What we know:
The complex is a heterodimer.
Chain A: H1 24-29, E1 44-50, E2 56-62, H2 64-68, E3 72-76, H3 89-98, E4 103-104, E5 110-116, H4 119-128, E6 130-135, E7 172-180, H5 183-188, E8 192-200, E9 212-217, E10 223-227, H6 232-243, E11 250-254, H7 270-280, E12 284-287, H8 290-296, E13 303-311, E14 317-327, H9 335-342, E15 352-359, H10 374-392, H11 396-403, H12 422-431, H13 433-436, E16 443-452, E17 457-465, E18 471-475, H14 483-495, E19 502-506, H15 523-550, E20 557-560, E21 563-566, E22 577-578, H16 579-589, E23 593-601, E24 607-617, E25 624-634, H17 641-660, E26 691-696, H18 718-730, E27 736-737, H19 741-758
Helix pairs in contact in A: 6-7, 9-10, 10-18, 14-15, 15-16, 17-18
Chain B: E1 2-9, E2 12-19, H1 24-32, E3 50-53, E4 56-59, E5 72-74, H2 87-94, H3 104-117, H4 123-129, H5 141-156
Parallel strand pairs in B: 1-5
Antiparallel strand pairs in B: 1-2, 3-4, 3-5
Helix pairs in contact in B: 2-5
One FE2/S2 (inorganic) cluster (FES) is lined by residues 98-103, 135-138 of chain B.
Amino acid sequence: MSADTRYTGQEFKSVGTRPLRPDGIDKVTGRARFGADINLPGQLVGRILRSPHAHAAIRSIDTSKAEALPGVKAVITSADLPDLTDGNREMFDILDNCMARTHAYYDGHAVAAVAAVDAHTARQALKLIKVDYEVLPHVTDVDAAIAKGAPVLHKDCFTRGVEPKPRKASNIAYRSEFGHGDVDAGFAKADVIIERTFRTEQTHQGYIEPHACVASISPDGTGELWLCTQGHFVVRQHCAELLGLDVSKLRVTPTEIGGGFGGKTHVWAEPVALALSRKANRPVKLVMSRDEVFRASGPTSATSIDIRIGVTKKGRITAGDATLRYSSGPYLGMWAELGAMTSFACYDMKNVRTVGLEILVNRPKTTAYRAPSAPMAAFAVESMIDELAGRIGMDPLEMRILNAAKKGTRSSYGPVYGPIGIGPTLEAAREHPHMSAPLGKNQGRGMACGFWFNFGGQTCTDLNITPDGSVTLTVGTIDVGGARASLALVAAEELGIPYDQVRAVVGDTSSLGYNDMTDGSRGTFSSSMATIMSARNAITILRQRAARMWDIPVAKVIWEAGCAKAVGKKYDNLAPLTLAEIAAAAPKTGGPIAGHNELVADGAGVSFATHICDVEVDPETGRTQVVRYTVIQDAGKAVHPTYVEGQYQGGAAQGIGWALNEEYIYGEDGRLQNAGFLDYRIPVCSDLPMIDTQILEIPNPNHPYGIRGVGETSIVPPLAAIGNAVSNAFGVRMTHVPMSAPRILKALEEAARDASEVA
Amino acid sequence: MTQLVNTNINGDAVGFNCETDETLLDVLRNRVGLTGAKEGCGTGDCGACSVILDGTLVCACLVLGMEAEGRKVETVEGLSDGAELHPLQSKFIEHAALQCGICTPGFLMAAKALLKNNPDPTEEEIRYALAGNLCRCTGYDKIVRAVQATAAELRGG
Ligand code: FES
Ligand code: FES
């Protein structure tokens, strides 16, 4: 069904207010049920055996001793998850990642699994499985993986995206290219050109809730799955395909989700749990340990980026050129491609070229992490903008404003922009008191901009008017941070009723049509669109029912402030009918009243942010503390401003952790050395200051309320904002993230040495 | 080896059987049916499992189930007084101090322990007192504000 989803500029009553969230009480009382809180009668405990090797051929697996252990009900290997993918490479990679076939490709790769009566027995059983590995040479570093003589992960990997097809297999799985104009001509016009290489290390989304599921398959081939996920419909699809079940026969119920940030957009252990349940003929609960979460789920890419930008003396960018190498684990991803698309998206580029190279390495399969791939590219570009501004003696803020993309600008990745927020966030930064606040000793201030596309996609909602006139809104997108409150606000707005009269819930896969997952900041954007349309459909029916109750033509009935009203002199005597009155009469006027909507939400407005950051560096140790932080971002329309602020703050905090501390550390042996929160240190409360936010509202023309996605962009600028702040404090240019204390100290020492040599 | 343990949880006498290698967190979640305390790491690094044991804040994943013998355990499930929320609970909701909420039970217990010892903490004291609890969603801003607001309310009333 096509519906008019254009922005109308209406006034709001509910949208933009800050009511309490519907799931609040459950979450502060311990009642809310997360992935690991689900239990079924008779359930077994599932556990996965993982490769200790970064790269090995699996010669054989002997499970007989484990099977013989009392209490063990099933042991599975890849033989129990046979390849049904029928040449679909993407699905095959998912399958291979869930359970290794011929090779283990990373430390932590699943090779077998057990289901037993209790955790103790399951752990013992894992020890009894004998895997005969032939250890192979490995490579974990993104640059080393494409150096001469590097071990090649897949003999059939010939770089796609290059013509003619390369003659030799390599670890470069795919090459993408974006841009327009003539880059060489652009550089010829530049007065100053800087060229640099930047590196960022691999980070993990770090959700506090490990992956958890309970799977149950009956002998009749129907199954049920409870899990924490960002996309239960996608999980159903993938699990059904991998296990050879009819999609409709697998019912997936999402639990509350304890953080995802992109890391819960895939299947990992769920197909394994289902296969165990099928074999054991009992429900199986499988919960990852934190060690498994780090070693086998998640991480983002490690990157290495060569970049060159030219500017005129007046500060206008004449050309930009970047080659971005992103690790994608052992399987092809689209990570460098997203990096290549986003790198220069903030600016009006006449001549631009970006090349993305997807690099295969012996690390876990790369997964989306909040605005995936954009922070690393922004680190490179935004650091360079500051450096170039310094060279020509221009304020970096003014240089950004001068070059900012605007409505009508052709983006560096192709499309022409509609109304966008980069310019306004920069202007707001210029006016912000943070920008002119005094700095203390050893402190520096930096700024940076960020961009993210935002997704739309397939969406479907149900809005049911219950017999007492209250409203149930069932949505198919997972609520990761308050979306139920926002969507209830939207339904209340459209129906003209109080927020408290609407209850929003997330439906399971059997109660709604297919929904894409909550990723790309699409949850509130797309489900609000479908909610508005559902409400409008319900209103059409409500008007018909009122017309029937009054026995007047439906054309004479309007919907206003939560009531049906009769219009025209003739009907002056008819008192408005409330939702409750119409609902109560429903059995006699045609039955239950509901509005449904299915759509592909197009036109997710792109999102921009500008961040300002003050750091204090201890010159003795290199330890860096963020002392003040401000996020300015366009929300289109903030449905629930408090939760929008929360998204801004949470993204910034993750970016700060990435910038200063977080990284996967691999040993020579290819094993992950810091698979725990003690050694992979995410920011704690005492590491951070308050994070100030400023919400701008530049309506998205493609959404009835002007809403844009807000969830991701704020993780993009912090890496560069902090790098620029360090640079402004001490005159050193940081090119390697994380800017951990030893790296900053080294940079300071080198700068001091250079200075003394000059003197 | 299974052993019978007698303890007091949220004011109720509770007895449970547990293995010697089971943690208090395992016991609460798997044997007593109180799943409010969460396991984020199992190694004492995230605070999602925070409970109060004889008045002291502990990570339930670092305490053995058998250590609860004869002691008093307070979990998030015991925080409210019937339907009456503890002020920390109301303030957490009001200030949107939770997004996903997986860390919330731990933060509530840690904040309760803090305010008992220090009814008027500075922002810095709050930040250090809560540094053992990880939250990946909020950036802590709204959590700190919720604790400040609770402290003010408790002092005022
Ligand atoms: S689960 Fe106990 S501290 Fe993380
Ligand atoms: S609210 Fe999600 S981890 Fe704290």
